[in-house]
Amino acid sequence: MKYPDFFSEVPTITLYDPLAEFLGAANDGILQYNYGDAVRLAGHSCPTVAGAYWTTCKALATLYPDAIPVRGDIRVEFSQDSASGVTGVIANVVSMLTGSMSDNGFKGIGGRFDRRQRLFFGVEMQAEMRYTRLDTKQAVLTKTNLQRVPASPRLSGLMAGCIANTATPDESAEFRQLWQERVRSILLDHADDAEVFGLSQA
After folding, report:
1. Tally of CB atoms within 10 A around 191
2. Is the pTM of this model over 0.90?
3. Phi/psi class of residue 118: alpha, beta or left (left: φ > 0; alpha: ψ in -120 to 50)?
4. In what order do the strands lie in the sheet with 129-133?
5. SS3 content of the chain, % helix, strand, coil (to 5)
């Protein structure tokens, strides 16, 4: 599978998953995820997928400044309902990275490794999302403002042509290039931009 070159420039995230270690799925339970994994899960690369991936990476780095994040030991809450806007898309990426699930998650083995009751929607808070370590109860609030990373002024017109199937091959190629250029800018140029990826201690 051939991805845009910038995918390899986006930092990966390393997590420890005790269930993966217990069942021998990964050496010492260490798992690594990259942006390409989020794209494979979603089936596409867009600002929403990019924002979900990088917000989670930053939140976990804040919660675990001196340790590897523990997958399955994190609660994630959304202020929006799961069917609102792109919340469901974001939640899928967040769930992949954190192991957090709602009632349909893994039920555990012998009272351990339960992944349910880790993902909640429609929670009242002064942020879009809240990530909480279950061992220490430390939490971080996040708010993502992708509108601060503008798209090319040509993008909307090119997209309209592609949707209507009237775009030329060159126009279709330009649309794809400009679309992914905005994703690249979000993940690389604005990775540490607090106006785009806002985090605060809860």
Report:
1. 15
2. yes
3. alpha
4. 119-120, 74-78, 129-133, 139-144, 197-201
5. 40, 15, 40
Rg of the chain, C-alpha, whole Å: 18
Structure confidence by residue, pLDDT tens digits, 40-58: 999 999 999 999 999 999 9
Q: Are 198 and 144 in contact (CB under 8 A)?
A: yes
pLDDT digits (tens, 9 = 90+) for 176-186: 999 999 999 99
Cα–Cα distances in Å, from 69 out to 4, 98, 116, 154?
28, 8, 18, 41
Letter for the amino acid at 74?
I
For 70, list phi and psi in degrees, rounded to 5: -100, 110
Taking the C-alpha atoms of residue 6 and residue 48, their distance in angstroms, rounded to an integer, is: 17
CA–CA separation, 145 and 166 (whole Å): 32
Type of residue numbered 196 = V
Beta strands in 34-167 (DSSP E): 74-78, 119-120, 129-133, 139-144
User: Do the strands 119-120 and 129-133 form a parallel or antiparallel pair, or are they unpaired?
Assistant: unpaired
Residue 113 and residue 126: Cα distance in Å, rounded? Answer: 30
Contact 125, 86 (CB under 8 A): no
Can you tell me the distance from the alpha carbon of 116 to that of 104, in angstroms, rounded to the nearest whole number? 7
